[in-house]
Specification:
alpha+beta; 2 domains; 3 strands; 73 residues
């Protein structure tokens, strides 16, 4: 092999290794930092009962801030 071929191969390997490290570092997050939402359908109210809706986007992690029982006031 010539020196130019070896330098090209090492350059390509270095780029692939960097891409793999960047992608693997971005793919794992703690569950409390992930912004994952679920759709809740049906009449639900906030804790104080002032706001209600039939469709809610609620985070999967954390306390339940809307529920049907809060609508009874």
């Amino acid at each position: 092999m010539k020196d130019k071929d070896l330098i090209k191969i090492l350059g390509v390997l270095t780029v692939y290794i960097c891409i793999i490290l960047i992608l693997s570092g971005c793919s794992v997050k703690p569950k409390d930092q992930v912004q994952t939402y679920k759709v809740q359908i049906g009449k639900k109210c906030t804790v104080d009962g002032d706001v209600f809706s039939f469709v809610w986007l609620h985070t999967v992690y954390g306390p339940q801030i809307v529920d049907r029982k809060y609508c009874i006031k």
